[in-house]
Predict the 3D structure of the following.
Amino acid sequence: MTFLNPAFLPLGVALLILVVLAMRHHAGRRRRLAQFLGGNRAAQRLSESDLYRLHVERILLLGLASLALGGAAAEARWQVDPMPPPPRSVVVAIDVSVSMQASDVLPTRLGEAVEVASDLVRTLGDDRVGLLLFAGSTYSLAPPTTDHSVLSYFLSNLPSALASAYDPGTLFSAALRDGVALALGSGEPSAERAIVLIGDGEVDETEEAIFEEVSAAVDQGISVYTIGVGTDEGGEMIVPRATYQFGGPVVDADGTPVTSQLNEELLESIAEVGGGRYAHASDSGALRDLHGAFDAPGLAGPSARYQLTLLLMFAALAGLFIESLLDIRLRGRAAAPARRIA
């Protein structure tokens, strides 16, 4: 057993000492009361209790409750397995299509996606993490690696525009297919494998093609998570000017600015079929829940960190409850023997 906050362990000892001192003081008062009533036999006839008896069971129950509270405050947890499971392989795939240049979120959808991906990489600790960009085609930047500084370098240096207005579109199926290849490519043992798709859900293919690849990933033991960026209201797209690339607003054939909207329903369905979770980039609570799925071995399993703490809290409450029941006397029970008539 280990403790996350061992500084709170003396709290349990201090409570135990207070319980012993209080019970000692209480026993002294009971003895003085018995003497005042004329001795133990007279006290038993009047109060139906033995005022001289030391209530050891109360001391034990309250003492154990005190120690349990101290252990719970110190956040006790089970001893860590000396042979940890192999690291997970997680592929982070970011949509870099033109729709990710929409300005309905700041600085752009792509900018927010990069921030979300950076936070996720920091959450993954010692796991192997790969990085994949996709639009109409995929661009593998890094296979799953434990050197997260490389991923941070790539993410911090992504250009503001990676796809032109004439890009063939967004193909989630290609991202899933190549993400599976990346996750399985190293051949190294892995506790879990997952793909995290970050995008706005605007695609240029049928949903059947997407879910076919989601099912293929699940069949190979890979979970699929999704993070949505953008809003239902949508926003216009403005492609930044860059070398060898014309920038400016994205317009249709009539010169009307094109609006891109978040397809949250598709992203939620992908996560559901893929056995993962969905979170919106602006929903901090949902993102924490998604990050929490990676806290302990087993992507969707709850963290075992608080199991022993909860058990200690329940033990303390049970001890206090049982101690309170000791005051209940059974009806008709006599504490002192009946007096014989001479």
In short: Confidence is low (pLDDT under 50) at residues 296-305, 330-336. The radius of gyration is 33 Å. Residues 9-37 form the longest helix (29 residues).
